[in-house]
């Protein structure tokens, strides 16, 4: 289909829309980008932004999953959230935005909660999977599905002034390895691991590295406040993640995949490697040790220590 411009009646096709890409990609590389089907599970901050960036890069096939609707708390960072899209489903709004970029794009939307079995069916037809649900336990299980089907997946985790980005391959290290949580947990146990105070004890770096206000972090721990996020960091992380997908599709450039990952903080952006001497490696070790100890008779003692830690650290200004 050609786009009819109202001013001069010129018809614009795919090659016209993305001709500037051909200064970097060959026709064959751009065609691989066009034909790829990307499955995005969660069309909020990073999910919606990656969708739009990929659409502007020439990706023309999307499957979008999200039961959620835009609300006012999304306005500070979600690329398709405007005053006139409040209350609308995120997949439908994102689809409309992509169509404004490329009317020929083929987009399937699923504006409801999907079971993991339903997600697996969608994954079977996808070339790239991006689990970006707010529920990180659900996303991890989507990563497991991608691995089982041998489909590459993208990881983006932003918060405050900090973010991590990496491609997750069909073999090698997993998301669980990167975050130090046990493998093969069911949804309920994964959910508990990410929401109880025992796990959150290992997220104080949100204050030290992510720049969170301590009062906000206290409410995050005690009252289940949402992750603190700002637009520049969310869009920056989404841009880097989108670049990794484009590199993978075009086969141009070195892809950052586990054990390597992008690390963004207020001090800069660099590529780090898990199990080298860095903060993430130390946090993984801490979580693994604490998880093991909390499964022993020491659990009650550790809970008392934890209580003292919250009282002493979080009460300081």
Give structural attributes.
317 residues; alpha/beta; Rossmann fold; four-stranded parallel β-sheet; four-stranded antiparallel β-sheet; 15% strand; globular
Give the SSE layout:
Layout: E1 3-4, E2 11-12, H1 14-17, H2 27-35, E3 37-41, H3 45-57, E4 61-65, H4 90-101, E5 106-110, H5 116-123, E6 128-131, H6 136-148, E7 153-159, E8 162-168, H7 175-179, H8 187-195, H9 197-200, H10 205-208, H11 214-223, H12 231-250, E9 260-265, E10 268-273, H13 279-293, H14 299-314
Parallel strand pairs: 3-4, 3-6, 4-5
Antiparallel strand pairs: 1-2, 7-8, 8-9, 9-10
Helix pairs in contact: 3-4, 3-12, 5-6, 6-8
Structure description:
The protein has 317 residues and is α/β, with parallel strands linked by helices. The chain has a domain at 3-175 and 228-274: NAD(P)-binding Rossmann-like Domain (Rossmann fold). The protein is built from 14 helices and 10 strands. The strands form 3 sheets. The protein has a 4-stranded parallel β-sheet with strand order 5-4-3-6. A 4-stranded antiparallel β-sheet has the order 7-8-9-10, sandwiched between helices. It has a two-stranded antiparallel sheet with strand order 1-2. β9 and β10 form a beta hairpin. α3 packs parallel to α4 (90-101) and α5 (116-123) packs across α6 (136-148). The longest helix has 20 residues, at 231-250. It is globular and about 70 Å long. The N and C termini lie far apart (61 Å). The model has no long low-confidence stretch (mean pLDDT 90).
